[in-house]
Amino acid sequence: MKAPTPEQMDSTVEQIAEMHTWANYNGWTAVSCGQCKKTVNVLSYAAGWFCPCGAYNNQSWTQTFIPHETPDYGPSLAVIAEGHRQGKLGREEAFKKHREDLYS
To answer: What's the pTM value of the predicted model, to 2 decimals?
Structure first.
């Protein structure tokens, strides 16, 4: 399998906001590559991940769910937080519209 580019490991606010609506979305966690030691924010509870350096890294099931503030790869803490905020607002708007549709 080909290693991802750093751009492929990044996620936008919009993508994270959409992920926030997933039933099995667990958030992000901070990890480091065992080979190149770069810091990375990856989705929590994944079996593992490929680093752009080409190394495959197993992922611990005992995660902190505390992302790096400014990782070498992956979305920053600020992007993740804004994605969560927008995801929450999107769910609230959807619930509000659903209630209005039910009672109108």
So the answer is: 0.77
**CA nearest neighbour of 27 among 4, 6, 11:** 11
Strands (E), the chain: 28-32, 39-43, 48-50, 56-58
Spell out the SS3 assignment of 52-66: CCCCEEECCCCCCCC
Instruction: Give residue 62's Cα distance to chain centre.
Output: 17
pLDDT in tens, 5-37: 888 888 888 888 888 777 667 788 889 999 999
CA atoms within 13 A on the CB side of 43: 17
Q: What's the CA gap between 50 and 2, in Å, rounded?
A: 9
Of 5, 16, 4, 32, which is closest to residue 75 (Cα–Cα)? 16
